[in-house]
Amino acid sequence: MSKRIGMEIALAAAEVAALCRPDVIAAYPITPNTHIPEHLAEIVAEGHLDCEYLPVESEHSALSACAGASAVGARVFTATSSQGLLYMGEIVPIIPAMRLPIVMALGNRALSGPINIWNDHSDVMAVRDMGWICLFAANGQETIDMIVQAFKIGEDHRVMLPVLVNLDGFQLTHVVESMIMPDQEEVDKFLPPRKPYATVHPDNVVSMGTLGLPEIYTEAKKAEDEALINSKKVILEVWKEWEKTFGRKYEPIESYKTKDADVIMLTVGSMYETAAIAVDQLHKEGFKAGLLNMKLFRPFPADELKAAVKGARVLIVTDRAVMCGGAQAPVCAEVKSVLYDEPVRPAIVNEIIGLGGRDVRVDDFIKMFKKAATADKVKPERAYEIYGVRSS
Amino acid sequence: MKKVFSRPKSLKENFIYHYCPGCGHSIAHRLVAEVIDELGIRGITIGVPPAGCAVLAYYYIDVDMIEAQHGRGPALATGIKRVLPDRIVFSYQGDGDLAAIGTAESLHAANRGENITVFFINNAVYGMTGGQMAPTTILGQKTTTSAPGRDITLDGYPIKMSEILCLLPGVKYVERCAVNSPANIVKTKKAIKKAFQYQIDGVGFSMIEILSQCPTNWKMSSIDSCKWIDEVMVKEYPLGVLKDVTAPEKKKGK
Predict the structure, then answer these.
(1) Is there a contact between B146 and A42 if contact means CB atoms under 8 Å apart?
(2) Where are the domains of chain B?
(3) For residues B58 and B91, is the Cβ–Cβ distance under 8 A?
(4) What ipTM did this prediction achieve?
(5) What is the spatial distance between Cα B35 and Cα B188, in angstroms, rounded to a whole number?
(6) pLDDT on residue A206
(7) What tens digit of pLDDT does each residue of B237-252 get?
(8) Per-residue pLDDT at B254 exceeds 50
């Protein structure tokens, strides 16, 4: 039976990953995800989990080892952050192209430089187009739930894609929260052992990770894109089943007080909970604020987004990364592109917040809401604002 | 009164080391700074700090510093030295940096015989991330990722980077030292000085491996961690000159 626990979220992520019975874990420590693989190493060493734990010499080797293990049929888990993800970079697009359902917990951390170990989303945004399913947890409970869901989604033969479970570094990884942890029996029932689609066997020789000449590369990419788009159906199925089994609801875009809302804000990740407090306070003042949280980023939930912003006069899109030299920050760029064809759409304001661990407080969200309230009449000077940046 | 001890000029003023009590890094930093002063190369020295505990070495050592990404020190130093061959370029790396994620860079800078100096701090553990097993971890040593003790069937053997590098003709001088006792500290300083002198003289690639105590992650007192180097670590990693191409060859039979 599920049990309520109080635990650091990184440790809970490790505990639940162990309940998923991975066959192989390969990782290299990097702040702030370190406690996840480290605790898994303990669980394996204590004999609670029958698993090959590979403390390889770099992230580059970690993801390569994961690829090898997954290709021959193992259930594989890994975790990293920031530069670690970039050092995996060469292998990151190979995993979905080979249709390997590896699950990775990404303790989101700013990219260097300057060197910064704190939280933003510049790491995941650097790999967002490489073919992984991308989930964002807003708290510890979602981290636990999404890790189990991720295996079920990724290993489904209609999907066969890797899944990134994003949890904000420090804001989530290092925070102790009250969470409900499923037990082994419940996880086993929800998540049966992996049935690999293709494995190596002398009687049925296969080639994996092969050359794609110009004659086939285009088709391979089209197939990969389709696979990712089609995964949404399975994601929604798995979330429905999760809700039925565990009573916790998941949807691509969660909404809070958006009914009749005048100004709506979109967040991704753990900022959602702070912004919700701001929304409550604004309601007391008679300001009709609403809030959306994007839990599913890849495949991009375009239809859900269109439905969620209906009726709003202004939409504030928060981003946690700078798209240097780009037209917009990454999340907003896609939001605008999705809403462009809508006959009626809200005015859109793009706020880049919380870079490299900069605190964003309730007051900040209130300021953003109030400032954006006139955006439909007075067009903002710039396509995006880096919120709270100091200047001399 | 006669002043008998003071801060080397190549160490910055008014700082407090961020290192844990009993750590060997601060001793190694000071030795590097003292040698830079003594050789009069402060104005022409460029340092390359690593990722790891010594990531903030530029807070302490008062020479130009260019930070490398994790493991990339010798490659970055190569770029600096090739453009500015009259400068003295050193990289300062831990065992996670040099012997794990940066093994390829270490080997290939050495194999090219780059005229740079590498300081390799070996504390047999990943320090900054909190004490996980490193490739240099001793057999049987308990770390957070080798809880029952390092086991060869799972984790392989302690990697001896200094001995490996000695096989490369491009490598001119390698010595393994320690900073766990006054006598060893004096020897370490001599080795650092010789390595810098070789670079000044254009001899080629040199590396000084420094066995360094890590009481925090070894979960020992400072005194016990100094003893552990003598009693355990030195058996795996014997101290002394491992290669010195300029040393007069010993006559056979003597």
Answers:
(1) no
(2) 25-244
(3) no
(4) 0.88
(5) 11
(6) 87
(7) 999 999 999 877 655 5
(8) no
C-alpha to C-alpha distances, B108 to A213, A303, A357, B116, nearest whole angstrom = 33, 52, 36, 12
Length of chain A: 392
What is the distance between the alpha carbons of residues A56 and A58, in angstroms, rounded to a whole number? 6
Distance from the Cα of A42 to chain B's closest Cα (Å) equals: 6
Contact status, residue A10 vs residue A27, Cβ threshold 8 Å? no
| CB < 8 Å to B50, chain A | none
From the list B69, B135, B144, the residue facing A41 with the nearest CB is B144
DSSP letter assigned to residue A256: E
Cβ-based neighbour number of residue A114 at 10 Å: 7
What DSSP state is assigned to residue B138? P
State the Cα–Cα distance between residues A319 and A337, nearest whole angstrom.
Answer: 15
Joined tokens for residue B153? 């069937």
Nearest to A55 among B130, B145, B148 (CB): B145
CATH number of B25-244: 3.40.50.970
Determine whether the interchain pair A55/B69 forms a contact, defined as Cβ–Cβ distance below 8 Å.
no
- Residues written for chain B: 254
Judged by a CB distance cut-off of 8 A, whether residue A28 touches chain B is yes
Residue (of B28, B36, B41) closest to B188 by Cα position: B28
* A171-201 CB burial, b ≥16 within 10 A, e <16: bbbbbebebebbeeebbeebbeebebeeeee
Q: Which tens digits make up the pLDDT trace of A242-294?
A: 999 999 999 999 999 999 999 999 999 999 999 999 999 999 999 999 999 99
Q: Which of A165, A120, A169 is nearest to A145 (CA)?
A: A165
Q: Closest chain B residue to A45 measured between Cα atoms?
A: B147
Hunting for tokens 């919120």 — which residue is that?
A387
User: Cis link prior to A299 (omega < 30° from 0)?
Assistant: yes
Q: At what angle do helices A140-155 and A9-19 cross, to 10 degrees?
A: 30
The residue ranges of DSSP E strands in chain A, in sequence order, are 3-8, 24-26, 52-54, 76-80, 103-108, 133-136, 163-168, 176-181, 253-256, 263-267, 289-294, 296-298, 314-319, 347-352, 385-386
Alpha-carbon distance B107 to nearest alpha carbon in chain A (angstroms): 15
Mean predicted confidence (pLDDT) in B29-40: 98
Q: Which domains are present in chain A?
A: 3-246 (3.40.50.970), 253-386 (3.40.50.920)
> Which tokens sit at A317?
């899109």
The pTM of this model reads 0.94
Please state the three-class secondary structure of A1-21 as a single string.
Answer: CCEEEEEEHHHHHHHHHHHCC
> CA-to-CA distance for B101 and A28, rounded, in angstroms?
9
Contact assignment for B67 to A113 by CB distance below 8 Å? yes
3-state secondary structure of A214: helix
pLDDT at A365 over 60: yes
Find the helix or strand (DSSP H, E) in which A307 lies: helix A302-308
* Contact yes or no for B129 and A30 at CB 8 A: yes
Contact of B56 with chain A, judged by CB distance below 8 Å, is answered with no
* CA-based nearest residue to A354, from A383, A378, A388, A330: A388
Q: Which two tokens stand for residue A116?
A: 């910064």
Q: Tell me if A87 and B70 make a contact (CB, 8 A cut-off).
A: yes
Residue A165: how many CB atoms within 10 A of its CB? 27
- For B56, other C-beta atoms within 10 Å of its C-beta total 16
DSSP secondary structure of B153-183 = HHH-----HHHHHHTSTTEEEEEEEE-SSHH
Cα separation, B146 vs A297, whole angstroms: 36
**Tokens matching residue A154:** 């990724």
